[in-house]
Write a structure and sequence with these properties.
Blueprint lengths: L2 H43 L10 H8 L4 E9 L4 H16 L4 E8 L6 E8 L2 H9 L1 H11 L3 E10 L2
Antiparallel strand pairs: 1-3, 1-4, 2-3
Helix pairs in contact: 1-2, 3-5
Length: about 160
């Protein structure tokens, strides 16, 4: 392989990392903005009866205090995106209900609906392990969804 081929491979890998990093930054910024929107809505709703509010303390509790962040990227095999989406629609409410989950979001690609991005914040590593050991994870993710994927990447981070 010549140097030009090695550069292309490296550039592609750097581009993938940049895309993943960009997605994380955008998602984190979205969560932060949502938190601010909730706080603003809370202040505004004090004068508007019937408007739901989210306690500012609860928002801060969710986004701070450490934890394990899992970011995963999936791509469905050709013709399998709708089947994967249907599985994830059943899976998501159960995942969000896990006792060790702070935030559990799944997004679907706008430009490529076969792509899925997971943004999962757990209280600690034990909560991640418990989530992966759950029956619904084994059934829906390991048993049903994974065989329909052409790509699956996952990275864990320690929250600062």
């Amino acid at each position: 392989m010549n140097n030009r081929g090695a550069t292309k491979k490296s550039d592609t890998r750097d581009s993938d990392r940049f895309s993943r990093r960009s997605a994380l930054i955008a998602l984190g910024a979205g969560i932060a903005l949502t938190s601010f929107e909730f706080m603003a809505a809370s202040a505004q709703s004090r004068s508007q009866p019937g408007v739901n509010t989210l306690n500012r303390t609860k928002v801060n509790e969710i986004v701070r205090g450490g934890g394990t962040l899992v970011v995963a990227e999936w791509e469905a095999k050709e013709g399998q995106a709708e089947a994967v989406n249907a599985i994830l629609q059943r899976f998501l409410p159960q995942a969000q209900s896990d006792p060790g989950v702070k935030i559990f979001l799944i997004a679907r690609g706008k430009n490529n609906p076969a792509q899925f991005l997971f943004y999962e914040l757990f209280v600690d590593d034990a909560a991640v392990a418990a989530h992966r050991a759950s029956e619904y994870f084994k059934t829906m993710i390991a048993g049903e969804a994974l065989p329909l994927l052409s790509k699956r990447e996952s990275t864990e981070y320690s929250l600062l």
